[in-house]
Amino acid sequence: MRLLLQFPEGLKAQALEKAREYEEQGHEVFISSAPCFGACDLALEEAKAVKADKIIHFGHSEFTDSPVPVEYIEYPMDVKYDAVMKKALKKLKKYKRIGLLTTVQHVHQIPELREALEKAGKQVKLGKGRLAKYEGQVLGCDAGAASSIADGVDAFLYFGGGEFHPGGVNVEKPLLIANPFSKAVEWFDLKRNEKFRKGRLTRALLAKTFGILVSTKAGQFNVEIAQEAKRKIEEQGKRAEILVSNYIDFDALQNFRSFDAYINTACPRLRDDQERAKAPVLNMDDLAELLKLLDSKAQ
């Protein structure tokens, strides 16, 4: 069988080893070298180009339908948690009801983490996002595991590496990040997100021209939403054009020199590249708020 292996950036170092394993099983192997930002970002064009029979996609759970067969290898990681949980429990001392969050790499450890919290007298709650496969699982584009239970918890505990996934959590409850790799346990600065949001909206209020971003990636393609956004912006007397690309590169977009702000219909975390964009980048929820502000300004 002809296989195309696809890895997110954090797992690309494993590509050679995995390719050898499949080749030893008698498969013909190709490796996608393009950046991979999630399960929404399947290497479909590469697979079609090399006539692959199947994509082997590492590091994510199933997310979207595909015209090419896809096998998802979730790549679970067993990490020691005793040290960070001990630190986390000290910081969570005054909170009783805890919402537990993690990534697909650690969802299999949720029962152990839950037990550790419950032994310390905590009530543990798990939510599930609309796009997530598992309870407690946070995706970069779907923090429903948090928002779905926010009213019933006192604080959230995120178990995992980095700030990318917890960075998408938009709740008004304290969020503690326990990193089992660095052993750091720190509160996430939720006020920072709110500060950036207000800054984006303030700048976008002054914009006269809008570029509406559409990605052709299988799990991000939202052209009808983009057309609706264009219509609503033009109703406000603004100029708007739809920009289509597989890979949205803000450095390349600067060459247009035409757009005062961007409306993003692709991965909502593109908004994190605010500084590279050199113009406010609004997701659809931001646009809804912007339109309300423009309406009130016009009255």
Give a verbal description of the structure:
By secondary structure, the protein is α/β, with parallel strands linked by helices. The protein folds into three domains: 2-73, Diphthamide synthesis DPH1/DPH2 domain 1 (Rossmann fold); 82-188, 3-Layer(aba) Sandwich (Rossmann fold); 193-298, Diphthamide synthesis DPH1/DPH2 domain 3 (Rossmann fold). 30% of the residues lie in helices and 20% in strands. The strands form three sheets. Strands 6-5-7-8-9 form a five-stranded mixed beta sheet, with helices on one face. The longest helix has 15 residues, at 190-204.
What's the CATH superfamily of the largest domain, by name?
A: Diphthamide synthesis DPH1/DPH2 domain 2
Describe the main β-sheet briefly.
5 strands, mixed
Estimate the strand proportion. 15-25%
Rg over C-alpha atoms, rounded to the nearest angstrom: 21 Å
Level-2 CATH architecture of the largest domain: 3-Layer(aba) Sandwich
